[in-house]
UniProtKB/TrEMBL annotation:
It comes from the Eukaryota. Pfam families: zf-RING_2 (PF13639). This is RING-type domain-containing protein. Keywords: Metal-binding, Zinc, Zinc-finger. It comes from Rotaria sordida. SMART domains: RING (SM00184). Residues 14-53 form the RING-type domain. One of its GO terms (cellular component) is cytoplasm.
Length: 239
């Protein structure tokens, strides 16, 4: 943002709350601009003009600035949910309506997440309650989706139907992540060790050691046993 743009935006800010002006009022004594609610509360507390300290300023002497109000109402702002993914630029006067309809709002995203979870659970029921053969790849994809949806108990049911749950490195690592995220740290450590033994890739082994280490950083109590790298180091020396 250039200095000129910055100074222009500052001219649309309330001199009390420093947010964009709402229901603009101008003081006749020094022509400073305020939100009506802000200056009203200020004067009700017995204050003089916040800018020039004039004691003659009252609520009745405040001036409306219709032209500036129109300009402020049409300033385009980022959607409040920009960090969630909304890229819309919305006129100030339409912002409240946009917030209610925005598909990236907290409520809308929660509903969308709940719908995804319900679909995943319906698919899980289809896999577990019918005799139709299901591949381990399909079960893995479903377990991964349920893990991302924090449905750990349901994700474990997928592993129960897998034929290669103890022989596939990818599946064992996913099981470890689920146990870790569900607070089952002893089970998670066992599975990380199992995955470590299953791979000879240095990069994968480093990732597994770091995953184990993160548990000790994020859980600073005694709910998990002391970190023991001797097993991993002995496996490394054997290789």
């Amino acid at each position: 943002m250039t200095a000129t743009q910055n100074s222009i935006e500052q001219s649309f800010e309330c001199g009390i709350c420093y947010d964009y002006l709402m229901d603009v009022r101008e003081t006749p004594c020094c022509h400073q601009l305020f939100c009506f609610t802000c200056i009203q509360q200020w004067l009700n507390q017995g204050g003089s003009c916040p800018q020039c300290k004039s004691t003659s300023l009252t609520e009745n002497t405040l001036l409306k600035n219709v032209v500036l109000q129109r300009i402020v109402d049409n300033i385009e702002l980022d959607c409040p949910y920009v960090l969630a993914g909304c890229s819309a630029k919305v006129p100030r006067c339409d912002l409240e309506n946009h917030k209610q309809l925005c598909p990236y709002s907290t409520a809308k995203l929660a509903d969308k997440q709940q719908q995804k979870l319900q679909k995943s659970i319906a698919l899980l029921n289809q896999y577990t309650e019918t005799a139709i053969p299901v591949s381990d790849n399909d079960l893995y994809d479903l377990a991964k989706a349920l893990h991302e949806q924090y449905a750990y108990a349901e994700a474990r049911k997928c592993f129960g139907k897998m034929k290669t749950k103890n022989s596939s490195l990818e599946i064992v690592i996913l099981q470890a992540h689920i146990e870790r995220d569900d607070g089952k740290y002893t089970d998670a450590l066992r599975l990380y060790d199992q995955a470590y033994d299953m791979t000879t890739s240095p990069s994968q082994r480093i990732e597994l050691l770091l995953a184990k280490k993160r548990m000790f950083i994020t859980v600073p109590d005694k709910s998990i046993p002391p970190l023991d790298l001797s097993h991993n180091m002995s496996c490394r020396s054997e290789n």
